[in-house]
Each structure stands twice: as C-alpha cells, then as structure tokens.
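Page 47, continued from p. 46.
Same chain as before, 402 aa.
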Amino acid sequence: MKTQCCRLPNYWSFAKLFSLLACVALGSLVAQPAFAQFEFGWEPFPPSSWDGGWDPILNCKAIEGTTTLNRNISTPGSDSVVQEGTVFCTFTDTANNFVGEHTCSLNVKINNLAESCDPNPDTPGTRLLTVTGTCPTATIKQGEGTIDCTGASFCSYAGSDPNGNTSTGCKWNLGWGAKQGQQVVSMTQDQCQAAFGSTKEVYSFSQVLEGTGTVCPLNAQIVKQGETFNDYCHSDTWDPAQKAFCDFRGPTVKNIAEATVVNFLTVDTEYSPNSINADCRPGKDQGPITLTVLGTNLEPHSTNNSIAVQAIDQASITVNFSETPLGFPVFKPTSCSFPNPDTLACKVPSCSNGFSVVENTINSAKKTATLTMEACLGTVVEGVCNGTRIVGDVETRKVAGL
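Result:
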C-alpha cells in the first residue's frame, strides 16, 4: 500500500513532526522544531504468517520533535539528517473493525545526502541550498530508522491470525531495502526506479540564503525554508528485528510510505522590561513592552536559526498568539524599527481591552510568565504566509501586579 502524508503550511523539521517532524538548520549541527503531520500506511504480515489477510493503516500525526541537518561541506555527498520526536498514531483495520491509538516515538537518521548551492533566479541577491538523497546511495542503517509504539493496545493485534504478535517489541523500521529470499538486501538501481520514480529521489529539502555565488556558508542567514519530502520502505511485522523493505512481488510495489514536512524557523528573541505588568485595570501602568528579534543567534547552546530580519512581514508579528483563546485580543506591534541592520525592535502593548499579553502564560506560584513571537518571513497573501513561518524562542519574565 502506498500512502501519503498531508502537506501543511509552514519551514523545515516534525507541529511539530513525522508524518515526520522536522526542522532543518544551517549550521554544521543545528536543530529546530517544526510542525508537520504524517500519514503512514503499510501492509504488515503477522509474525507467524506471510499472508495474514489483514490490511491496516497507521496514521501518525506529529506532536513534537526536531530534525538536525549535519552539513559536511568538506566531503561532498556526506551530509546527514536526524529526525526525532513523538507522534500520535491511529491504527485502523477496517475489515475487522479494529481501531487503536497510542503515542509513539520516531527516530530516523539518513546518511549520504548530497547538497548543491546555486544563484536563486527567483530572488536576486540570494542563493538556493538544496539537499537531496537518492536510492540506493542514501542509507538508513539498521536500527537508525524506527517508529516505536511499545505499550500500544494494537501491538498484539494481528487481524485474523489467532497467534497475534508474538515478538517481544512493537517497533517497525524505515529504510530502503528489497527481499532476497528471507534476507533483506540493498535495492538495485532498477528497483529504486520502480519504487520511487526515475530520479530515485527519497529525500529532498531546500533553503533560500542571503548572498550570491555558488557557495552556501554555514553561517549564511535564511530568507526562506522549503518543505521536506521523504519516501521510505517499511518493515512488515511488529518484530523490531525485521528490516525495512519494499515488496516487489506483485504488479505494484508495496510497503512504501510518503511523507511531507512543512517547516518553520526558530529565532532568537528578547523582551524588555524584565518585569511585565499584568494588572490591566484603569489607572495602572500599561506601557508597551519591547520585542527584539535578532538576525544572528546569540543564545548559547540553542537551536535558533540566523534569519534575515529585514524580510519579516511586520504586520504578521504577534506575541503569545498560540496562547490566545477565542475572543481574546491579538497582541500585535504598534511600531517597529531597525536599531541596526541585523536587529528588529517592536513596541507591543502590554494590555488590550483589559487583558494582559501574558494573561494565559502566567505561573502564579513563581510569579513569572512566558512570551513567544510568531511571524512570517516573507509576505502574507490573503492571510497565508507566502514564505516561511518563524517562531521566537520562549522567553520567561517576571510578572508584576498579581
């Protein structure tokens, strides 16, 4: 069965994940979270039989996670990517009226990815970084591509097979293999073409960076992120020892999963003053707070991205929007400026219609609250970000007026 994940609006990583999770980064080892949804379907055979007579579908939606791109610019064709996080999976066998749900963990490492850097004809003054993997060159080693649902109610399910799942685990594998007798071996060029098309492309990702020429340095600022596309073979049993393989025995290739990850960027942000007034009654100090968006990440040990702050659609900026319930005011800047070309500073109301910007994020015991920015890197057309969604890192500030 060939399945396909849903495409969502957003940057590269996992709303975080698989149909995949995902975020891609520019640094040698930089990670960030991403929103994504994954629909993963397969026709697994019960461990005790090669023709168990069941046809289940597993649909996994991302909860949270990250994708880390490791660019090895000194050795062409040796980039790698790690995708990891949690997904909420629904297992359905319609023929036998069975449905099960569980939160599972995902971990995939893809090796031997190639990259190219070219002048971007769509936007002068930028370049296009493209990272791809082709079968059978790209590899996922045994144990490095897994979705683990241990503890799920459907782990023991096997359709009409009375023996059920007799393995000791509930993990299935992702990769690119083919059956040769009872062994799983690397696919041939012809098999890759039959399974994934003439290009044999099983992984792709793109990123628009500032600058010109045919070199994409690790510290170049990001102007736009592309989607991530993945094609996989998967194993046909709950047994974690069963390697992933595409099934070429019938007229169509089975055991193929497709995934699309729409990504977003995380950026370094700061807020002042250090204490936010949460008392929005008349006559109280209701001065604005200052949001600062940093084009170059200054936060130590973080996964934030370096972005071109000049490309942010200022009208799209909101603070704590994800925490805003229906009918609650949306907090947007009243003005923005550039203290320097690499920094965007915006004034945001601390109160609106009697409500505080931190109203829904306050920790009363600690007298603190969190602030998070969301915006569009690019332009907004009819309410849709025509570019890349960006999210500020979560900042904690003291709260006054409680």
